[in-house]
Design goal:
The model has no long low-confidence stretch (mean pLDDT about 95). Helix content is about 30%, strand content about 25%. Helix 7 crosses helix 8. The chain is an alpha+beta fold. The chain folds into two domains: about 20-160, Electron Transport, Fmn-binding Protein, Chain A (Pnp Oxidase, Chain A), CATH 2.30.110.10; about 170-205, no CATH class. It has a seven-stranded antiparallel beta sheet, covered by helices on one side. A hairpin with a 3-residue loop joins strand 1 and strand 2 (about 55-60). It has eight helices and seven strands, in the order H-H-H-E-E-E-E-H-E-E-H-E-H-H-H.
């Protein structure tokens, strides 16, 4: 595993291993939000946002289906809801506007990848378009689309992500409180954290 001869270090070697993409793998990519791709976005209640800066950051974003609004065939609007204030992705966008969004739809194997650039807007009129439970988002990401394409269902089929029989009970894994308590070597009250967590999530959803 540590043999340097087994590490691929250039694009030519990578292409020699994998070959060139062809057929649908190429033709599915377009430089705008095709109406069919718009349908996938409108049906999606969940996406993953990836950014690059001093570090690479990936965060989940979710809300009611269509929470990412289609402004036009080249622009998406993504509200930034209440969170933990780490602003990892937002900090990256300030430094480097490149972003990627990966949309998932429950029960659907295909995903949609959108690549572009983003700006962080606090325009009051724009924020007002995304009010939920009388709460405004902190900001809205205005994403200019460079290209997008669907990805086939193989990954979700292999993972059985939507298969009910593959679901894992949350209690089978360490709770958030337990993780925090063990990381801090007992300085954090994990039991208290877990006890108030369900209500806290409801109270701070937006």
């Amino acid at each position: 595993m540590d043999n340097p001869d087994h590490i691929i270090r250039d694009i030519a070697s990578l292409r020699a291993l994998y070959g060139e993409p062809a057929g649908a793998a190429v033709t599915k990519q377009v430089d705008h939000l095709h109406p069919h791709y718009q349908a996938l976005i409108k049906a999606s209640p969940f996406c993953v946002l990836a950014t690059i800066g001093e570090t690479v950051e990936i965060t989940p974003r979710g809300d009611a289906p269509g929470f990412v609004e289609i402004q036009d065939a080249h622009t998406l609007l993504l509200p930034d809801r209440r969170g933990n204030n780490r602003i990892d992705n937002l900090r990256n966008i300030v430094e480097d506007p490149r972003v990627t969004l990966l949309f998932l739809i429950p029960g659907v194997g295909e995903t949609l990848r959108v690549v572009g650039t983003a700006q962080i807007s606090v325009d009051p009129a724009l924020l007002a378009r995304f009010v939920v439970n009388n709460q405004l988002p902190k900001s809205v990401l205005v994403v200019k689309v460079q290209y997008c394409f669907f990805q086939c269902a193989k990954a979700l089929m292999r993972s059985r992500l939507w298969d009910p029989t593959a679901q894992i009970e949350r209690t089978a894994l360490p709770s958030n409180g337990k993780i925090l308590e063990d990381i801090t070597k007992g300085e954090f009250d994990g039991a208290a954290y877990d006890q108030i967590a369900p209500q806290r999530l409801k109270d701070t959803m937006y």
